[in-house]
Amino acid sequence: MKKITFVVLLIWAFACQTAPKESFDSLEAKAFEQKIKQMPQASILDVRTSQEYEMGFIDKAQNMDVTSNDFEANIEALDKATPIFVYCKSGKRSTKACEILKNKGFEQVYNLEGGIGSWQDAGLNIVNKP
After folding, report:
1. DSSP character for 127?
2. Is residue 107 part of a domain?
3. Are strands 109-112 and 84-87 parallel, antiparallel or unpaired?
4. How do residues 49-92 score in pLDDT, each as one tens digit?
């Protein structure tokens, strides 16, 4: 009986542990937009490929493909104290980019949950190049 109680307590202890918190904030589309409006000096990074970027992007976003070999060199040109808003297509690449940014010392990093698809689903505008 003591062995079963110990096992149950052990399982309960591990089950109640919370997952480690991300070192950046992930925001839903409307909150992401509101936060950008509150911080007009912020940088917006579209970390998709240039082909994806050309199909439409969030206004004032600059394209820095997180899968390119020069991503880390490119972000070095950014001010680490300036808030950075990051997005991709679905949120996976932007999560990776946010982790890189935080590891490089960027202070305020925000990830768009669900990527540009969630932005559009929320009825928010994108810029389309002619």
Report:
1. B
2. yes
3. parallel
4. 999 999 999 999 999 999 999 999 999 999 999 999 999 999 99
Amino acid at 113: E
Taking the C-alpha atoms of residue 103 and residue 123, their distance in angstroms, rounded to an integer, is 33
Tell me how far apart the alpha carbons of residues 12 and 48 are, in angstroms, rounded to a whole number. 41
Q: What is the pLDDT of residues 19-46, one digit of tens each?
A: 344 589 999 999 999 999 999 999 999 9
Q: Is the pTM of this model over 0.90?
A: no
Q: How far apart are CA 81 and CA 12, in angstroms?
A: 41
Domain that holds residue 56: 21-121
For tokens 């992930």, name the residue.
26
CATH label of the domain that carries residue 111: 3.40.250.10
Q: How many CA atoms lie within 13 A of 68 on its CB side?
A: 15
